[in-house]
């Protein structure tokens, strides 16, 4: 009976609306406007809105989109992504608006992950700035450029916590910490979306990948995830929720399974957690062919997995056309119902409405703006400034840095002259031809350059690690010849700068690694450089935590620059020569050995911890939780990073020793710049919940502030700690702050030792 009614209504709607284009009427309330559109749509047009093809022939997934032009005319496309260029976008939008029956505009998406044409540091590097204004500014400029060029939806921020540097996509997120990544999530959503989604320079953000994508077994991309509910809720979920709380318009599902059910078909995850518990009212999109991939996961054929996704609460199907080709059949067979399809259509139309696309489908299409705003000078200048904030100084023996302006330098290493690697992974729109290598950044300095070594010895690995063609130079000469030339270059210099590490494609999607060392070919070069007896400054390029034991022992200085974006080379020069004092801090732990992975500061105590908590973590104790052949401690801890100056953090004060539920506590410290340079320090606040109904981490970051201090200057830094900050999901999965004793630590890394305590009533 209901089925018949639906068919009648649809027919009526079709007859009523035939030939009628959707017309915006600002006097009509949004709900009414959208109801009227839905009532005019045929089933085919409804399902069409749920279809998100990718432009172009390239595919990373299980299949690719078909007949895009024809489908747009037939009203069978809701949006298009990764199409670049304002004129091309205008042409496509015109087809949708003028040639399709209802003229519903398309939404245009893109992976604008860390900048548009102006590339900023990779997200892991952005995280290392520990500066929320940087997160927001980067997103703001990205939105400014993207919308000027026709894009109104970005697949960012990626907020997958990861504690496994073997996983290549750790580069795309904010690292290991729940609090830090949640801050990033919030401020990036703010930066992209602004206060008004319909403004011409704001775009819709998309929190991804929901959920737990950063915890694949053994660090292998797309692999199975196995996690307890309370680790999900206490550690991995909060950054997604922070994006939802900040009003994100869309959420992308992840490729992995959660409790055995692929996220894309996981009703508990989408319907219960995301929509009901968190109140998310935007739309849910799959990842690239995420529906189709459920076939390989063992969930059934295309019709079954598409129905599964719809029943779970997915609204939009990226690339795979599972909805497009099977939903009608599933509806006729009662495997999905029309209310679900209507709800999905509604969410997508609402997003288009909020973006102002019904009012003006060409709102973001303005060639004049594109010319003026994309890669604008001031954006490039901001990219340079932000890059300097992202670099982390890991070692600086005898103050070898900053360099003197007239220092004679030998510049060696495969990453020195690799301009197109500087934007880093996932920078589809970047202007590679305009990016600045380290060699270019040092062009006005006194430099002798030699390649010194290839990225790796193995040509097959080299090709696989540079598959998209961003290839650091491959030199056919033997390793010995290359090293000989490098040694020659060091003859009359004061200092050696070795640009080493990974190529940009050695991190990112499908770039998992089992070895975190700098490749052997480059280590050989480094050894030859140490052997010259000249000071060696390692400039590291990486999209993950590396194991740097040997470099830490032998190099004089190590500056980790991640992939710094368009202006990398200039920004590195700014820091090497002290124009900017480094202030970045690690957003993830750097292990001593890959065997320590997963290693993270917010670990849990065991029943057999090392006996002396003040020990260096390196003295073996039988029948305690430690390794026979390695320390427990990392090489560089979370939150660590040096400056050219020194800071003293002292005088930790709490304004009360007992805290009532619902109350708050003021924590203050005195920070003084005690060295010889002006500079910024990141003051970090951690807590430890001493007794809980479940075991609690030994430390949890609860606040941080980046403060700039002139040399000799001191400031009071104040934190406000509320009982909200102390809440966690307890043994009964209730979100509570449990009464008892808490310790507070403040310092400039997760090794913060300055300590006080209070009691929660
Ligand atoms: C990635 C997503 C990305 C999507 C669209 C997928 O392969 O996992 O992060 O947004 O492609 O390009």
Can you describe this structure?
Belongs to the glycosyl hydrolase 3 family. It contains 23 helices and 26 strands. By secondary structure, the protein is α/β, with parallel strands linked by helices. Among the domains are: 1-104, no CATH class; 383-576, Glycoside hydrolase family 3 C-terminal domain (Rossmann fold, 3-Layer(aba) Sandwich); 647-760, Immunoglobulins (Immunoglobulin-like, Sandwich). A 6-stranded mixed sheet has the order 11-16-15-14-12-13. It has a 5-stranded mixed sheet with strand order 18-26-25-20-21. Strands 2-3-4 form a 3-stranded parallel sheet, with no helix packed on it. Strand 15 (536-541), helix 22 and strand 16 form a beta-alpha-beta unit. Helix 2 packs across helix 15, helix 8 runs parallel beside helix 10 (238-245) and helix 20 runs parallel beside helix 21 (520-531). The N and C termini lie far apart (60 Å). Beta-D-glucopyranose binds at residues 60, 82, 111, 155, 208, 287-288, 509.
Could you give the order of strands across the largest sheet?
11-16-15-14-12-13
Stretches with pLDDT under 50, minimum 5 residues: 5-18
- The Cα radius of gyration reads 27 Å
Q: Mean of the pLDDT scores?
A: 95
What small molecules are bound in this structure? beta-D-glucopyranose
According to CATH, what is the class of the domain at 383-576?
Alpha Beta
Pfam families: Fn3-like, Glyco_hydro_3, Glyco_hydro_3_C
Keywords: Glycosidase, Hydrolase, Periplasm, Signal
Subcellular location: Periplasm
Catalytic activity: Hydrolysis of terminal, non-reducing beta-D-glucosyl residues with release of beta-D-glucose
């Amino acid at each position: 009976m209901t089925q018949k009614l639906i068919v009648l209504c649809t027919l009526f709607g079709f007859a009523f609306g035939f030939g009628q284009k959707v017309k915006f009427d600002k006097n009509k309330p949004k709900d009414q406007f959208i109801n009227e559109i839905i009532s005019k749509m045929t089933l085919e047009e409804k399902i069409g809105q749920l279809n998100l093809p990718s432009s172009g022939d390239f595919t990373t997934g299980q299949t690719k989109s078909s007949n895009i032009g024809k489908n747009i005319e037939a009203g069978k496309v809701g949006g298009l992504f990764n199409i670049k260029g304002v004129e091309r976008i205008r042409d496509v939008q015109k087809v949708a608006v003028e040639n399709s029956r209802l003229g519903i505009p398309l939404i245009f998406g893109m992976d604008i992950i860390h900048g548009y044409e102006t590339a900023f540091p990779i997200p892991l590097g952005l995280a290392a700035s520990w500066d929320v204004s940087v997160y927001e500014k980067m997103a703001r400029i990205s939105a400014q450029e993207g919308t000027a060029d026709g894009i109104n939806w970005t697949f960012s921020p990626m907020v997958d916590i990861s504690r496994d540097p073997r996983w290549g996509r750790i580069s795309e997120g904010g690292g290991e910490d729940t609090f830090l990544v949640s801050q990033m999530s919030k401020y990036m959503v703010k930066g992209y979306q602004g206060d008004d989604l319909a403004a011409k320079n704001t775009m819709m953000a998309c929190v991804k990948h929901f959920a737990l994508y950063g915890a694949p077994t053994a660090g292998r991309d797309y692999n199975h995830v196995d996690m307890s509910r309370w680790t999900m809720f206490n550690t991995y979920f909060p950054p997604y929720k922070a994006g939802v709380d900040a009003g994100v318009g869309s959420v992308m599902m992840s490729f992995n399974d959660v409790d055995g059910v692929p996220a894309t078909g996981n009703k508990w995850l989408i319907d219960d957690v995301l929509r009901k518990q968190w109140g998310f009212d935007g739309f849910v999109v799959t990842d690239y062919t995420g529906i189709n991939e459920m076939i390989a996961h063992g969930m059934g054929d295309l019709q079954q997995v598409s129905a599964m996704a719809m029943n779970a609460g997915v609204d939009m199907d990226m690339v795979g056309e599972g909805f497009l080709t099977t939903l009608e059949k599933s509806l006729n067979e009662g495997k999905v119902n029309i209310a679900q399809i209507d709800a999905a259509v509604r969410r997508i139309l609402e997003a288009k409405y909020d973006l102002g696309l019904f009012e003006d489908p060409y709102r973001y299409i303005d060639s004049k703006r594109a010319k003026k705003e994309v890669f604008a000078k001031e954006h490039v200048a901001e990219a340079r400034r932000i890059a300097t904030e992202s670099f982390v100084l890991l070692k600086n023996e005898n103050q070898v840095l900053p360099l003197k302006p007239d220092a004679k330098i030998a510049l060696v290493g495969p990453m020195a002259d690799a301009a197109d690697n500087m934007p880093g992974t996932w920078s589809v729109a970047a202007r590679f031809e305009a990016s600045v290598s380290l060699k270019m950044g040092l062009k006005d300095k006194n430099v002798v350059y030699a390649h010194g070594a290839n990225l790796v010895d193995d040509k097959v690995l080299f090709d696989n690690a540079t598959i998209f063609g961003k290839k650091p130079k491959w030199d056919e000469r033997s390793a010995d010849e290359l090293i000989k030339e490098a040694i020659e270059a060091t003859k009359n210099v004061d200092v050696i700068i070795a640009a080493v590490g990974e190529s940009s494609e050695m991190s990112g999607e499908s770039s998992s690694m089992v070895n975190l060392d700098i490749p052997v070919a480059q280590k050989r070069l480094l050894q030859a450089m140490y052997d010259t007896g000249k000071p060696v400054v390692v400039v590291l390029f990486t999209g993950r935590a590396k194991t740097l034991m040997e470099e830490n022992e032998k190099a004089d200085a190590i500056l980790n620059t991640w992939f710094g974006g368009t202006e990398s080379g200039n920004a590195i020069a700014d820091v090497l020569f002290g124009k900017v004092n480094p202030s970045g801090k690690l957003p993830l732990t750097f292990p001593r050995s890959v065997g320590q992975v997963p290693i993270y500061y917010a670990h849990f105590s065991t029943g057999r911890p090392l006996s002396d908590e003040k020990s260096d973590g390196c003295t073996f104790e039988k029948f305690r939780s430690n390794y026979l052949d390695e320390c427990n401690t990392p090489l560089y801890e979370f939150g660590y990073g040096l400056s050219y100056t020194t800071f003293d953090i002292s005088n930790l004060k709490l304004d009360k020793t007992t805290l009532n539920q619902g109350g708050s506590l003021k924590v203050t410290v005195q920070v003084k710049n005690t060295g010889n340079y002006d500079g910024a320090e990141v003051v970090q606040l951690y807590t430890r919940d001493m007794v809980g109904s479940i075991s609690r981490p030994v430390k949890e970051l609860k606040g941080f502030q980046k403060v700039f201090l002139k040399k000799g200057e001191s400031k009071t830094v104040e934190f406000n700690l509320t009982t909200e900050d102390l809440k966690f999901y307890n043994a009964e999965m209730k979100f509570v702050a449990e009464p008892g004793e808490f310790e507070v630590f403040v310092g400039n890394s997760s090794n913060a030792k300055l300590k006080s305590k209070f009691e929660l009533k």
